[in-house]
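User: Could you walk me through two proteins back to back? I'd like the raw sequence and the structure tokens for each, with a short line separating them so I can tell where one ends and the next begins.

Assistant: Of course. Protein one, sequence then structure:
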Amino acid sequence: MAAPCDTGTPEPFSRMDKMMNCFMKRPDAAVRLLCFPWAGGGSLHYARWGNLLDSPVEVYSIKLPGREGRAKEPFATSMQQIVDEVADTLVPALQEKPFALFGHSFGAMVCYAVAEYLKRVHSLEPVHIFVSGASAPYSETRLQAPKRSQLSDEDFLHWMKTIGGTPSEILASPEVLKLFLPVLRADLQVVENFRCSKPEKPFLSCPVSCFDGKQDTPHDLKAWKDITCGDFNIQMLPGFHFYLKDKANEKIILDYITKHLETADMDYL
């Protein structure tokens, strides 16, 4: 069972324990990495990264309502609801030391919304943003993407099989699907209803790095450059939408994150 990360006071500890997994506590970590799940996802995939990153990086893997230990809570119905909870719970920790953000697909949208809110409301900026498998939220490619949340169960399952990433045992079990599909639909509805305007000027100065699968549906990755005046990088890796689950790709991503966060606090200052 994951050990919670303590911020030093009982009340925030309780809220953080509910909201995130932190498998490897690193009190002396130079940087905290906040990871946001893909649609329908939990926290375990990214929580593992805390054990795999042999570096001064402490991984906070976010748990959203309606799944895992929060299964009895109602799903989030808007992006702002997710952002408000993240900010209300984690701002004290984010003020302690440098932090970075990572998100894949739906998680990349959450990364954007959280980063924009933290900068605008709390004057907090990550030292690096890593996004994966998603167009920038304001890009025409994203705005014109097909809506999936209202598909029939048959069409929805066909789409899930097409993009891959869902374990075969889930797809083969009607009982498990009955539990899994509502979570996925709820997240997709949140992201489909999320709208934001293209920034008139970059609101961040930190580096932004984009990853994507070469065989995935093309995304407008270049549009992410509009959020920062800092360094910008795109890296394409073999695979479809869930290319990052491949062990070789995961190693490339983690090595890249490690390289850029080991000295991020010094670079940023």
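----
Protein two, same layout:
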Amino acid sequence: MLQSDKVTVVVRKVSKSYDVPKKGKSNLSFKQDKFEALRDISFIAKSGECIGILGKNGSGKSTLLSIIAGNEEATNGMVRVSAQPTLLGVSAALQSHLTGRANIRLGLLAMGLSPKEVKSLIEPVIEWAELTDAADRAMETYSSGMKSRLKFAIATAVNREILMVDEALSTGDATFADKARERMKTFLNDAGTVFIVSHSASTIQKHCSRVIWIHEGQVIADGTTKRVLRKYNLWTKRTAAKNLEGADMVIQNAINRYSQPKIYLESEFAKFQIESERFRSEYRRKEGKHRRDS
């Protein structure tokens, strides 16, 4: 998989907050607190990247993916994408009492494919998901692994420029994980961008070349998988050992080392260039005057 210079996703100073009733107040009270699910998130993704979004449960990972996919609106900030992202989350469209075959049709239609496209993809999806003998059984009779394969096969039935996977790879067996990894490689080889959201370091390590660590709604690390996972694994070990002071030290160290990228709109960049040139001209003028005076 080769990373290109084509930018596919831009996230700029994105925040998301929710109004929640104040603790201890009656349900009739109109007083509310603000819960900040995301705080000032910024990053750029490019074609050919497989990016892991890592963090503990409740850190804001799925909220971020939902905003990038367009399913939620950010409270503040901006998201720009080069194509409509495909969020591996067709579960809402599927019905447990329907057969696997019927759910494939339903899921593909929910993703916006035409009836003609759906018809041509049903058998390939059944084959990839290894449901040949179970395709005409109700989905409620499937094991968790069979359901995972089915959902993944539906969501990845056609190549998309931006694929987003939320925890799906952590539920199936090793064979499924290997097949899913090969499937995603085809996306990357076709210059796609893949996001994988998980709190599992092993899942991220298997699939991703870059990791963004989100902790309590903010990015605290963004870099190579090896470098970020080294910090994350140290934090999880100290947390598991009830060494809360040591765990907090890891978090604070990550925050201190993280530098948020500066992302400019075209108009802002043009203004920045003008101001930079004005500063350089003023510097050259003062330097020239200083030399003449000396």
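The chain has a mean pLDDT of 85.

Let me know if you want the two compared in more detail.
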